[in-house]
Amino acid sequence: MKDLKFEQKRSLSRQEAADQLTALADALREGGDAELELGSATLGLRIPDDLHSEMEVEIGDGEIELEIELKWPTAPKRATPPRKNTPAGTARRSKGAARTKTAKRSAAKSP
Question: Cβ distance 72 to 48 under 8 Å?
């Protein structure tokens, strides 16, 4: 179930469509909290820095349909703290230690 759904269908002039897209582009460019005026309604959104986009064009039945979809999570992503002992770091240390022991043994055997 969706938490909220806002849908608006209406006829627009080419200029009105461009104005709507320009307002959306400005909100995307600024990020953060944005308010979009959509006809008689105002929609407030929090827009993060990273988005997922999808564009679809369908041509058929005497019409062209263009869909632009933008998605982002409702909650900000939490930064994961760096791990102190990573398996890769541990492996590098143990290989280095093994090389040092081998080098010492070789040096001890050499005349």
Answer: yes
CA dihedral 9, 2, 33, 13 (to 10 degrees): -10
pLDDT digits (tens, 9 = 90+) for 12-69: 999 999 998 998 899 899 888 888 887 788 888 899 999 999 999 999 999 999 999 9
- First CA to last CA across the chain, in angstroms? 79
Whole-angstrom Cα distance, residue 43 to residue 33?
11
Within 10 A of 110 (CB to CB), how many other CB atoms are there? 6
Rounded distance, CA 95 to CA 86, Å? 14
